Amino acid sequence: MLKTVIPALAPSTDGIVLRDMQEADLDAALGLAQAVHWPHRAADLQFAFRFGSGLVAERDGEVVGCAMSWLWGAAHATLGLVIVDPKCQGRRVGFRLVQALLTGLDGRSVLLYATDEGRGLYERLGYVRTGEVRQHQGTAQSAPLVALDPGWRLRPSDHADVAALVELDAAARGMPREALMRELMSLSDTVVLDQEGECRGFAMLRRFGRGLVIGPVVAPDALGAKALIAHLVGISAGKFVRIDIDFESGLTEWLESLGLMRVGAGTEMVRGPVSEVVPGVRRFALVTQALG
């Protein structure tokens, strides 16, 4: 997996030093996530770090901030898991972390999902808004099946679907993420939307945070997305489930009818060219807000 090339970083006048994140820093990153009430488990951070690179901010030997980036092919990247210890917020630690990461990403289209608090920071770094995401979660309720047109059906994925699902993800997300998709398939319950033997969409369910997460979800239209999501919600009834959806999908009220209430929002932002997607295939839910 490609890694971000981080330039040499000098200490700042307030004693905060930025350096490359190491695997040994993940325990500190988990502590930062818990301090700001993010739900990530150690396993979630380990998974993210396996595919990316990061920086930490240290003061007097203590990690007080972190940020990560992931490279997808030669032209794309995502940026996320930007966390600053509450006692150091207001000191531009997050700004310095992101600015340093972006120096190693020059020439790429860099996607991220910003909180309301972080949006201004990213705008100052050249980001522009490209969409909205809504976080839904709760105890999943039994979901009625969604009727599909003749010739369409849902089925479990198998090894023969890997290439098709990698291609669908790249078409819907606008960036190549083969290694990530292969790993997700090994960790997830994956259901395929099939039209007469052709993969037209898919959705994944796996462990994350407080319980389970549904995502990514790719489908040609909202009906297909609902069928995929309803199936995974149905097999998760009684369990805590999260899904992060594209707000323009129009699925908000329907998800709330399944017990997955809207609890948060994020702004999709891009620095550099906006990724091109293939008509007829659409991303409805994210892997995570960090990975996109």
Give an account of the 3D structure.
This protein has 292 residues and is an alpha+beta fold. It folds into two domains: 16-107, 3-Layer(aba) Sandwich (Aminopeptidase), CATH 3.40.630; 135-285, Aminopeptidase (3-Layer(aba) Sandwich). Helices cover 27% and strands 36% of the residues. It is built from eight helices and 13 strands. Strands 1, 2, 3, 4, 5, 6, 7, 8, 9, 10, 11, 12 and 13 form a 13-stranded mixed beta sheet that branches. The protein is globular. It starts with 15 loop residues before the first strand and ends in a 7-residue tail after the last strand. The model has no long low-confidence stretch (mean pLDDT 94).
Q: Give the overall form.
A: globular
CATH architecture classification of the largest domain: 3-Layer(aba) Sandwich
Radius of gyration: 19 Å
Task: Report the major sheet.
Answer: 13 strands, mixed
**Total number of helical segments?**
8
Please write the CATH class name of the largest domain.
Answer: Alpha Beta
From the N-terminal CA to the C-terminal CA, the straight-line distance is: 17 Å
- Number of spatially distinct domains: 2
Query: Which segments are poorly predicted (pLDDT under 50) over 5 or more consecutive residues?
Result: none
The computed structural class is alpha+beta
Q: Count the E strands.
A: 13
Report mean pLDDT, rounded to a whole number.
Answer: 94
